[in-house]
Amino acid sequence: MDNNTHPSRGLNLEAARLRPLAAFSVPQSCPSPRILDGFEIPAGTNFIIDSYALNIRDPFWGVDREKFRPGRWLERHKSGRDLRYRYWRFGFGPRTCLGKYLAELIIRSVIIEILGNWHVDLEDITAQQKDMVEKDDGKAGDEKMSWPWDDETWIHSPQLLIRCRPLTGNAT
């Protein structure tokens, strides 16, 4: 499972790319003067990383950058060096989270366990949930689930209900 070509890797990374845990990084301070894209940044300047700008809005991810496509992580032309400053999840460089590799291994293990032993479905929209449904222009078929805005984290979270049923003969 530690193989970088295992499908669980793409599922994990793509889900985190499209729905990052935090919209912004913890504020940091520039240790020395830098020039970034022609702009001078003095030492001591505080900055944050906008995970949406890197993970989703960057043209690097292609025309389908807003779509869930786990296979993009298995493409040969995307090396670790290419991704270094285009994907933010656990930080960069010396400030990278120490638990990064363990967290990724645990997440992948849980995904494999669930998908290997359970049939997972999205629940149908209930009457209660239909109150949250937006209509674009009132035409039939234009309904979509609303994604409420969380003012404390700046994260859009879909109101999804998931049903899990044990696969025959695999229940634990």
Structure description:
This protein is of the alpha+beta class and 172 residues long. It has one domain (7-166): Cytochrome p450. 26% of the residues lie in helices and 14% in strands. The protein has helices at 7-18, 51-57, 80-83, 100-117, 127-130; strands at 28-29, 34-36, 39-41, 46-47, 118-122, 134-135, 143-144, 162-166. Helix 1 (7-18) packs across helix 4. The longest helix has 18 residues, at 100-117. It is elongated, with a radius of gyration of 20 Å. Keywords: Heme, Iron, Metal-binding, Monooxygenase, Oxidoreductase. Belongs to the cytochrome P450 family. It holds the Pfam family p450. This is Putative cytochrome P450 monooxygenase.
Q: Provide the gyration radius in Å.
A: 20 Å
Provide the CATH topology.
Cytochrome p450
Walk across the major sheet and give the strand order.
1-4
Give helix % range.
25-40%
Overall body shape: elongated
From N to C, what is the helix and strand string?
Answer: HEEEEHHHEHEEE
Return the CATH architecture.
Orthogonal Bundle
Helix and strand arrangement:
Elements: H1 7-18, E1 28-29, E2 34-36, E3 39-41, E4 46-47, H2 51-57, H3 80-83, H4 100-117, E5 118-122, H5 127-130, E6 134-135, E7 143-144, E8 162-166
Antiparallel strand pairs: 1-4, 2-3, 5-8, 6-7
Helix pairs in contact: 1-4
Search tags:
172 residues, alpha+beta, Cytochrome p450, two-stranded antiparallel ribbon, two-stranded antiparallel sheet, 5 helices, Cyt_P450_sf
Short description:
This is Putative cytochrome P450 monooxygenase. With 172 residues, the protein is α+β, with helices and mostly antiparallel strands.
